[in-house]
Amino acid sequence: MNVMSMPAEGGTNSLEQYWMPFTANRDFKASPRLITKSEGMYLWNHQGGKLIDGSSGLFNVAAGHGRKEIADAVYAQMMQNDYTAPFQMNHPSAFDLASKLTHILPDPFNHVFFTNSGSESIDTALKIAMAYHRANGQGHRIRFVSRERAYHGVNMGGVSLSGMVKNRETFPSVMPNIVTIRHTWDPEAVYTKGQAEHGAELADDLQRHCETYGGGTIAAVFVEPVAGSTGTLVPPKGYLQRLREICDKHGILLVFDEVITGFGRLGHPFAADAFDVTPDIITMAKALTNGAIPMGAVAVRDEIYETVTEAAPDDAIEFFHGYTYSGHPAACAAGLATLKIYEDEGLFERAAGLSDYFLDAIWSLKDLGIVKDLRGMGFMAGVELDPIEGKPGIRGNNMQKALFHNGCHVKWTGDTAIVAPSLIAEKSHIDEIVGCIRKTLEEV
After folding, report:
1. What is the topology classification, in CATH, of domain 33-63+346-443?
2. What is the pLDDT of residue 173?
3. Which residues of the chain have pLDDT under 50?
4. What pLDDT, on the 0 to 100 scale, is given for residue 14?
5. Residue 165: predicted pLDDT
6. What keywords are annotated for this sequence in UniProt (predicted)?
7. Is the dihedral of CA 404, 407, 410, 414 positive or negative?
8. Are 331 and 325 in contact (CB under 8 A)?
9. Is the pTM of this model over 0.85?
10. Where are the beta strands (DSSP E) in 30-127?
11. CA–CA distance from 402 to each of 395, 412, 434, 442 (Å)?
12. CA–CA distance, 18 with 14 (Å, rounded to integer)
């Protein structure tokens, strides 16, 4: 399709002005894939075609598209109060949303800091860790630990923590004092459904860093409980527990990046509940507002909040950090409406109940010769394909486009599809998604 001849809503005939994120811009603009409508489990493209959404947008539309309850709540809030400066002033719904969040967070998480994205949540968590140790008289803790194949957003803090090469090699000037431990994917454990039996010893990499640099120099360890954007790497049994033990031994903060795993994706409010491991800091975003309004948040243990706030003089700002749009009224309204949907419709429990059916459907693809590995837990799974020799990632890029034209949206990272339907999905929707994936793979 000639881009210049394709009129868009609003009167312009060109797609050239928009520099798209994480997109092959020249390729896309030569053959656009535009969505003009979304509702429930489905999307409609600019040519009138209907697609089922197999990845909940970008894992954020957990309650399905087009939720009128959220739109109505945002409209009502905007008509009453469209914006309040969040520094030294605020509005009631920010406190209401923070309170509602603490009711579904594990104990003792009773304090929430609002951001506008998962990337901002990671940078905020880095600053909270620094502020906590400084207030605690341990400002010498300047190191942070992340993992290979990690993804923690695109701000400089997250890029510094990243273990995915394409998110780092273009931006070499990152934070110093970052060290990584190994990822948890094991070629000997391919096609493992849920957690592998072996591999907890990989967490001992953290102990080795403590012995190399001194545990007292490490501020925090950042991990995705299930590494999402790298293709759904489920931790082996005992791995997260072992990380918790080492952190406790050396006074290191454990940060769970739950931007993807939060809000029911693993059949529980948070992955911390699913794995029965309590971190010190939890970052979140995405499904917090069902994708309707940009928003993120960072929840901390009571001790962290109290240490930072009580270290400052009376009437002084305790934490020199924040955003113009922290806790924006419209975002808070969307968050409150979203949490009510999750509770009223029992969506976390629904995901838990459908997990076995979903994972069995994904594992039905095992017979296809092109499938290199299948991984999954809860309501998210990775379908990894053999790469084209010498061209890693090209097959996945081609597959994403082919799936679109076959009637299904699925997010790909490299040569791995990340399948994560909305929590409102029925068994028939799961069958439709997996059927479309099979059809498309058979056409390769």
Report:
1. Aspartate Aminotransferase, domain 1 (3.90.1150)
2. 84
3. 1-5, 7-8, 10-11
4. 87
5. 79
6. Aminotransferase, Pyridoxal phosphate, Transferase
7. negative
8. yes
9. yes
10. 35-39, 42-45, 50-53, 109-115
11. 10, 12, 14, 11
12. 9
